[in-house]
């Protein structure tokens, strides 16, 4: 193990690169895509429909963190792979998350959802990915995904020419977490919900 | 549901508040605490010891995201609540995460770990919390936790006087995610590992 | 690895020991305890209350299998540790599972549930265990638990004098699985539900 | 809710039907199939290979219970969907569980495993199912699966002509649990391991 003195970057530099990336990435989020996504979520409340969140690995964990808050907001939300995952039917909404848009298990689940008549929302970095192509609505969240691509155009736009310090899909995953949490604030604002409202539904045994 | 026009804040403002919070929070992370934490993790590699990560809710999810990367880096790491969680013995390391430092299940697990002779690292916002008090080493990650406290001094230092837009523990949880991901970059640097090294251990079936 | 010819027991003997154990164990289940448990579960439907299932390890997995069927039957059921676990309040029901009755995380969760005013049902092999003592209702499911006890009286009654071939808590865990599945049949019978009713709620994406 | 007096079957009858089913089902397990499966598992120990367990719903839970015991026995075992699931490569073993043999997510994972060069073991009730067809080795575990089939020949052979009292895939899932636990006893016997050996690896924090 190399001594600390030989380190090229400090811990704070790593934290700043990631947070500055997210800050700049927020400018590349398309307002129309977010607005349509928000409306689809709100409609599930009015029509008494379910939301199912599908994702693997660290993207799946970001999806779970989002699912918890949707539950706190009163949405009827579930996560694929959890114990309690009820039947999904036509009119329900499936949020399928994959930075690369090529994760097989996510695509398999999204395809089944389509056949059932559910509405599929893809959250991905690539508009031309297989996942985006089968989705009813796509929200592009920029970030370098674990599948390195020559054309990581948006990442280079944000970071400039230097290689990102954060490995694999880290920049996508963190941007995704901040994206979902901002959507929670947006939904609170639209629904006129306060922090106290959310607290009432927060788990009491932990 | 209120119309979008009446919204006080835009979606981008939410994203920027969170990412700017994290950026400023990075200045409040104590370098010595991080350095000691990093060394404890690296020692598990040399001494062939295990790491067990303990956390509930959204903090637990951040812990899981960190656990995945530790595995990619070659650490012998497990998550409490996963199917495969082996016996922990003296000399092993338990990372116990709780923003408030009062989460009962985390404290119960950390206490058991102490009795067994494992080393407990607390990741929390409160140095005087019950969790911090039983830990062998504490790393303070600033953030407003879900337990609202009058003395959210660090949060006000970072945000100024205005109330945070993000509800409950959001600011802690996102800062925690960025903190752990920066620690991954730090560990890569110390171990001389490249992104390609991590990729070799990344799950191939998903 | 020893050659197969030197094996003392055949694979079928292992299967038969376990299934015969369960068959005999069913005679030691107390009808009144089961009836009261069933009534408490049915009351949650009438009073629009939640059920939370708490267990660790293999007992926790049996609890999850039960939770799935309760959901198929229309109960409002959750599992501690799942992503979607809402707040539990007074009048809700917590099913706390621990063969030995001394599992710390289960006792911690059950104690919190009691403080909140939830009804705690203990599923355990030991009536004098700490878990049983804090519960509002106890159902004894016989079986050797992973904590070997001299006074494994019920197990010897069932197996005779020979040592069980199945290790650790296996006999408890399998009996528990069959116990819960029989309760599902009992609930179907009481509610007048058919297999087709359950199928409608079975997950459609898998 | 109908009164208890009108019940056609008693709780004990439900428990006896299930355990007697498993007892008879054990006669229909093919010894050669089990022996080959056991050898494949033992070879992973000698060749330092990984085992990955794949399953959804209640079959997946049975797979997780088996995974815990394989870990206690010293196998290098993982579960798809757990936090810690490393890369699988050629020579590793994937145990794919699906009663019906048509569960899409299981087939998708098994296909990917085949492409990678891993050895796929299918645990299913149907030898002609899509899952069985792509597997390197098939072990037939009899049971009525959640997909009702006219040709549930083996189930009728075991139960006689009456309809099973246990709904959906219950009989398969319980038989599966007992099957896996018997395999654990078989592996202990072949490896010369005692209960004490397993206990040393059993989780100490719970």
Could you say which structural class the secondary elements and strand pairing of chain A correspond to? alpha/beta
Return the average pLDDT of chain A rounded to an integer: 90
Quickly count the domains of chain A: 1
| Most extensive interface | A-B, 68 and 68 residues
Q: Helical stretch count of chain A?
A: 8
Shape of chain A: globular
Order of helices and strands of chain A: HHEHEEHEHEHHH
**What multimeric state do the chains show?**
homotetramer
How many whole angstroms does the radius of gyration of chain A measure? 18 Å
Summary, kept brief:
Chain A is α/β, with parallel strands linked by helices. Chain A is 49% helix and 11% strand. A 5-stranded parallel β-sheet of chain A has the order 2-1-3-4-5, sandwiched between helices.
Summary keywords:
homotetramer, 206 residues, alpha/beta, Rossmann fold, 8 helices, 5 strands, globular
Give a description of the structure.
The structure is a homotetramer of 206-residue chains. The first copy, chain A, is α/β, with parallel strands linked by helices and 206 residues long. Chain A has a single domain, classed as Rossmann fold, CATH 3.40.50.10490. In chain A, 49% of the residues lie in helices and 11% in strands. Chain A contains eight helices and five strands; from the N terminus they run H-H-E-H-E-E-H-E-H-E-H-H-H. Chain A has helices spanning 11-25, 31-46, 57-72, 104-116, 130-134, 153-159, 170-191, 195-201, and strands spanning 51-54, 77-79, 93-97, 119-124, 137-140. In chain A, strands 2-1-3-4-5 form a five-stranded parallel sheet, sandwiched between helices. In chain A, strand 1 (51-54), helix 3 (57-72) and strand 2 form a beta-alpha-beta unit. The longest helix of chain A has 22 residues, at 170-191. The radius of gyration of chain A is 18 Å and the shape is globular. The first copy, chain A, starts with 10 loop residues before the first helix and ends in a 5-residue tail after the last helix. In chain A, 58% of the residues are buried. The mean pLDDT of chain A is 90. Chains A and B meet through helix 1, helix 2, helix 3, helix 4 and helix 7 of A and helix 1, helix 2, helix 3, helix 4 and helix 7 of B.
């Amino acid at each position: 193990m190399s001594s600390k003195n030989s380190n090229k970057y400090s811990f704070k530099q790593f934290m700043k690169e990631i947070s500055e990336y997210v800050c700049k990435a927020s400018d590349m989020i398309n307002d129309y895509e977010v607005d349509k996504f928000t409306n689809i979520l709100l409609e599930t409340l009015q029509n008494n429909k379910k939301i199912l969140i599908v994702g693997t690995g660290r993207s799946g964990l970001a999806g779970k963190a989002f699912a918890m808050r949707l539950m706190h907001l009163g949405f009827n939300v579930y996560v694929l792979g959890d114990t309690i995952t009820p039947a999904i039917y036509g009119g329900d909404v499936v949020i399928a998350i994959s930075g690369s848009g090529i994760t097989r298990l996510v695509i398999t689940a999204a395809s089944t959802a389509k056949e059932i008549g559910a509405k599929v929302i893809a959250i991905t970095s690539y508009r031309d990915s297989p996942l985006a192509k089968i989705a009813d609505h796509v929200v592009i969240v920029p970030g370098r995904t674990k599948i390195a691509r020559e054309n990581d155009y948006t990442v280079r736009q944000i970071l400039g020419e230097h290689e990102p310090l954060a490995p694999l899909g880290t920049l996508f995953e963190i941007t995704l977490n901040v994206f979902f949490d901002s959507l929670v604030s947006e939904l609170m604002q639209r629904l006129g919900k306060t922090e106290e409202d959310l607290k009432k539904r927060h788990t009491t045994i932990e």
